[in-house]
TrEMBL record, chain A:
Residues 264-599 form the Solute-binding protein family domain. PANTHER family: OLIGOPEPTIDE-BINDING PROTEIN APPA, PERIPLASMIC BINDING COMPONENT OF ABC TRANSPORTER. The keyword Signal applies. InterPro entries: SBP_5, SBP_5_dom. Residues 1-20 form the signal peptide. It holds the Pfam family SBP_bac_5. This is Peptide ABC transporter substrate-binding protein. Residues 27-47 are annotated as: Disordered. Residues 27-38 have a biased composition (Basic and acidic residues). It comes from the Bacteria. The keyword Signal applies.
UniProtKB/TrEMBL annotation, chain B:
GO terms for cellular component: plasma membrane. It is a multi-pass membrane protein. This is ABC transmembrane type-1 domain-containing protein. The keyword Membrane applies. The chain crosses the membrane at residues 21-45, 57-75, 96-117, 129-149, 156-179, 191-218, 244-265, 307-332, 344-362, 426-449, 474-494. It comes from Lentibacillus populi. InterPro entries: BP-dependent_transpt_permease, MetI-like, MetI-like_sf. Belongs to the binding-protein-dependent transport system permease family.
Amino acid sequence: MKKRLLLVLFSLILLLTACIETKSEVSKEKDADSDKNSDGSNPEIEILGMSSSEDDINIVRDQLIKNGFDVKLNLQPDYGSFKAQQDAGNFDVALSSWTTVTGNPDYAVRSLFKTGGDYSILADDEIDKLIDQAGIETPEEYVETYKQLEQKLVFDKAYIVPLYGSFKTQGINTDILDKDSIRLSKSRALAWETIDFKDKSKRDKDPLMLSQESSTLTSLDPIKGNDGSINTINTNMYVRIVNLTDDDEVTSDGSLSYNFGIAEGNSDYYFLLRDDINFAEIKDGKAVDTGERVGADDVIFSLNRAKDKNSVPDHRTYTLHEHIKDVEVVTDLDALEAVTISGGDDTIKAALEKGLDTDINELVSDKNKANNEAGKYQVIKLTTTEPFPQVLNYLAHQSAGIVSKKQVESINTYDVDSYDVNKDIAYGDQDTVTEGDKYNNTLYASGPYILSSKDNYEATFYKNPAYMKDTEHEPKISTVKVRFIKDADSTLSALRNSEIYLYYGVPETKYDVVDKDDKLTRQSIESNAVTYLLFNTENREVAESENLRKAVLYSINQDEFLDFYHGNKLKASSTVSPLVDTGNELKSDPEKVKKYLKKYKDNK
Amino acid sequence: MLNIKGKVHENKNEHEHALKLYVEYTQANFTCILSLIVTIVLLLASIDITSLTIKPYLFIAFVAYAIFTGMQIVITQKIKKDLLMLGEIQKHTRKWGYIQLFSILTGNIFIVIFALNLIKMKQTPEYTFAVYMVLTQIAIIAISALNVFKPYVANLFPIAMIVLFIITLFQIAVLFIVARYANGHTVDQRMIFIVIPLFIISVTGNFFALLLGCSLLIKIRNNYRPGTGKWNGIWEKISQNMTAMLGMLFIIVAFSISICSYFTFDYDMAVENNYSAILQSPSPAYPLGTDNFGRDVFSRIVFGARISLVVGIASTAIPAVIGGIFGALAGYYSQRTDNIIMRLLDVLYAIPGLLLAIAIIAAFGANTINLILALSVGSIPTYARTMRANVLMVSNYEFVDSARALGSSDLSIIFKYIVPNSLAPMIVKATLTIGGAVIATSSLSYLGLGVEPHIPEWGNILKLGSEYLESNSYLAIFPGFAIIALVLSFNFLGDALRDALDPKMD
C-alpha cells in the first residue's frame, strides 16, 4: 500500500517536472541570450556615475550585459568625488546630464563638445566647425546644421550615447498658493516675484516657503557660479537686460529693458533701459532702498566683467559671454535712427519705442538724469565679435545679472592674481551672509529679492522695496524662505505637510503621490535636461575603437528608460534635442551591436 | 461532596509542579500565542479596510489557521487539566497531536512542531533533530516549488526537485526509525547505515541532518563507553527550548536555501530587469511582487540570504579567530606581551566600528570582500578581551600545570589545552554578534556603501523598498521581515547556547 502510494507520488512529481519549461528551452525558442554567457572575451565597460543616479546606471548595466558586455560599476556618493574620478579618467562611460539653462542650442553643444570647452573632453575639428557654423545661423538655417552635428557626434563617431530627455515638474500646494501666479518655464529659473498667496492678505504677514537641495551656495556674485545651488537665487537677486519667456523666447518682460532691437547684420544689439529699479541692501535685518539706480554704467560694468576671464578669481561663466565684444552707452539719438532692425525696415529707435508711454526725446549717459516720464532714457549698445543672434539667450542667463558697479568695486579691492581665499573676501562670498561672526552682508541686489541671511537650515530673502514699484512686476510676497532639504523624499514630505508650498523638480517616480494628494497640483513641462553617456577619450579601449563605442551605442534602448519612468521621460538623440527638432532617433539594434563587436574583436 | 472537592483541591496543589516539569505545557502555550498572532495577522490582511470587502484566498487561510488555533487552545486546556489532575499527560490527549499534524497543509509550522513533540512521549534530542530536519526539507521544497508558477525555471530545477523529494522521503523514514529505535542512551550499531547518508545530505545545507548524524554517531560509539557526554547534555537543553529551535530552523532554512538556490532558482530573475513587469503586487508568479525594475523580490530575497549569511558569518568568524589568537597569547604570556597586544587593541577599540567600516569601504571601494574585512576589523578587540579573560582563568587550572610539567611547548599548551576549554563564551558571543553583523551589512548597503545596488542583498532590497513605502509597501516589508527574523533567530540561538553552556545553570 505504502509502496504504491509512493510510486503514485513519485510519478506525479515526474509528470509535473516534465510539464515545466526550463530556461534553456525557453531561450532556445527565443534564440536570444546566445552572447550572454561570459566566456572571458567580452569587452568590459566601466560605468561611472553618482549613486543618486543608480537607477539609470542599473538600466544601462542591464542593457549592456544583455548585449554581451561585462560591466563594472564605479558609483560615487557625491558630485565632488564623481568629478575627481572623471578627471582621473577612471571610466569608460560616465553618466552625465546637461540642462541648457539659456534655452539656445549653441549652449547645449559649445561648452560640452567643442575642443577646449568648459566641460569638453572632445577634440574633433569637424564637430568644432559645425558648432561654429550653427552659432551664426538663424533658427531656420541651423536645424540642418545641428542635424549634421548630431549625426557626426552620436551616430558616426559615437562620442556620446543619449539616454533620455526629462520633464520639469513642480508640485504646488494650491490650498496656500494661487496656482495661476506660478510660472513654469522651460529654461529659466523659477521667478519668485509673480508668486502670490491664494489669500492676498497674507502677502506681508507670511513668508513664501520654498526649498532647494544644496545649502552651500557657490557664490552670490552671478558670474562666479553656474550650478543648482545659486541659479534660482541669483536669478531672483539680479535683474538682467533681457529675459526668457516660458517657452524660451527672448523678451524684455520683467527685465531691466523696456525693449531691445537687433540691428541689421546681427552684430549690434540695442537695449532701452528702465528707470524704476534701485539697488536694495540689507540694513539691520531689513531690505532697504539704497537710492542708487540700476543704470547703464552698471550694465556696462557687469557685462564687461562677465566676459573677462580675469575680472574675478574662479570665474565660472566667461565662456558664455565670449561673443561680447563691446558694451557702450548710446548718447546720440540720431545714431538710433540711422540703423534699421535686422530683417525689417523699422529703425532701431522705432523698435525701442514700441509700446512706450513717452517717446525717446533725449539719451543721457548719467543714470541719475534719466527720467522716462520726461522722455529721458538710457540706451545700451552691445556689439558681438561676429554675427551671433543667440547672444541674447546668454544675456538672459543668471550670469549676466546686473550688479552695482560702485558696490562691487568697493568690495573687490584685492588683486585678482594674488587672490588669497583665506584673506580676501570677494563680493558674494556665502560666508558674508551666513549667520555667525563672519556675517557682514554687503550684497546690492538689482532683482526683486535680496538675501538677508542664511544658515544650514534655510535662507531668508526680502523683497526689494524699489523694484519696479506699482508695475505688474513688483514682487507680491514680502518674504521668501528657502529651506535646504537634501533628498527628494524629504522634500516631498515637506511639501505634503505644508512646510514648503512649492516643490520645484518632483522626481518622476513620485508623480502619483503628488497627484493623489488633494491639496497639491502637479505641473509638468518638457525641460532642456538631457541625460547621456559620455565616452572616455583617453587611455581606454573605448577611446580608440569607434566600433566598440558604436556597439555600446546600439545596446542602449531608450524605450526601456521610458518604461522605467512610467513614460515620464522623453526620447533624445543629443543635448540639442529639446531645443531643435532634428528628426534623428536612436534605435537599439542587437544585430548592429553584434556586427560592431565582431569588428572590434577582429581589429584587436 | 465536600470531601471530594477538598481532595481535588489537594490533588491540584500536589501536581502544580507538573505544569513546570512538562515542557509540553510551556510549548503548548507558546504555540497558542504564536499561532494566534499569525491568525490575527491573516484576518487583518484578509479585510480590505477601505472598501470593507474580504479577500477570498487570505480569508480561507485565516479560517484554516483559526480552526487549528482553536484546537490548539483546547489541547492546551486538556494538557493543563491532565497535569493538574494526574500529574502527567494522558495517552488520548497525546493522540490529538495526530490531528494537529494536518496543519502542515496550512504551513503552520508552530503547530506541527508542537504536535510532533506531543505525539512522542519521551523526546530525545535525536527525535527533535529529525523533526526539524524533515521540516527544513519540506520548507526548502515548498520555497523552491513556488518557482513552477514562473514563466520558466532554472535548467537544473526538475532534477534538483526530484533529488530533494527523494531526500525528504529518506528523512521521513529516518524520523520513524529514530522515533522507534533511538530512545535510550545507546543505539544499535546498524544505525551507522543511516548516519552516513545523513552526513552526505547535509551538503544541501540541512545542518539538522548533520547534528542528527553526530548525535547518533556519539550514541553508537557509547555502546562501548557508556555514560552521557557533554554533547547530549547541551543539545537536550537546547532542543527543549522552542524559541531557540525555531531560530535555528530559520537560520538553517536560510542557509539551505542559499545552497539549493544554485539549482532551483534562476539568478537572472533576481538581477535582470524586466520592464514589462514593473511594480507588480504579489501573485503566484511573483510571490512577493516585483520591484521598480521588474525583478522578482522573492528571488532577490532568496539570493540575498546568501550574502547576508556569508557576510554575517565571515565577519564574525574572522575577528573571532584573529581576536581569539591575540587574546589567548595576551592571556597566557607575561605582563609585557599582554600589555603590548591589549593596548594596541584598545586603540582599535576606541574607533567606532561602523565608522571604521565606512572609512574602509570609502577608501577601498564597495564589494563583498571589503565589506567583510571592514566589518571584521572593528570587532577584533572585543573577541580578544573575551578570550584573554578566559585564558587567564583556565591557565591556572591543574591540568595546565601538569601539561607544563610533562614538557609540552607553550603553543601546544595554549592551543591544545587552554583554548578548547575557553571556547564556550566565544561561541556564545559569536552567535550573538552574527545578528549585529547582519544588521551592519544591511545598514551599509542601505546607505549605499555595501555591495553594488543591483546585487540582491537584504539591505539593498530594503533600501529600494523604502522609496515605495507608501505605494508598494511590500517592497520594504518582506526584506525588513527577513532581516528581523534572521537577527532574532541568531539571538535566540545565542541565548539558548549561553544557557546550555553555562555550568551555573546546571
